[in-house]
Amino acid sequence: MPVTARNSPVLLMTGLAALLGGCASKGEIDLTGGVGITAIRSACPTVGIPASTGDVTMFDPPASRDASAIDVTALMTNVRSTCNDVGTDIQTNVTFDVRASRVNAVAARDVTLPYFIAIVRGGTSVTAKRVGRVTIHFAAGQTRASTNGQASTSIARSAATLPDDVRKKLTEKRKAGGDDAAVDPLSRPEIRQAVKSASFEALVGFQLTDDQLKYNATR
Hints:
single chain; mainly beta; 5-stranded mixed beta sheet; 4-stranded mixed beta sheet; 3 helices; elongated
């Protein structure tokens, strides 16, 4: 899923990475001041759909789970984001499409579905969540319809910024053959935890009931 984001100037290293110097460009090996490959770390959150929340099935009657009772199905797709990381807060706008189908197409009908956007820090901690609604209109005789929705998030830049000491450890040059040349900074628990704590995700999906989640997970 494409994500449009501006990159912050923080450089992370993987493996034997070291800060590139001189005229070396991103991804090149610089033999003058150390050996390594760099990657740019963005302060913008990654965007995605959590497992089992990207589609929803409605039944009639609601308590039934028989295939013959399926009333409306909907799928969230084409999730995209734009990010503005200039300023004290990092603003992310997420857009998505909803494609739906129904069984009974006799009359016109509007179906309103709740969805959420959640900010997850470090892969496990939900720091914020909002619920919105999107309405799909089926014209008379129409079995398929689609619409789009959007949501926005705001993350404090300070929370998504690595501490200076951690950034220094990640970007310091390492001479080939030196004692620390073969040591990945991310192998140190405190460095790994700091990077994890400064990493965010913006997750969108349908706001499902417990029964709907169970159905998605076990069908």
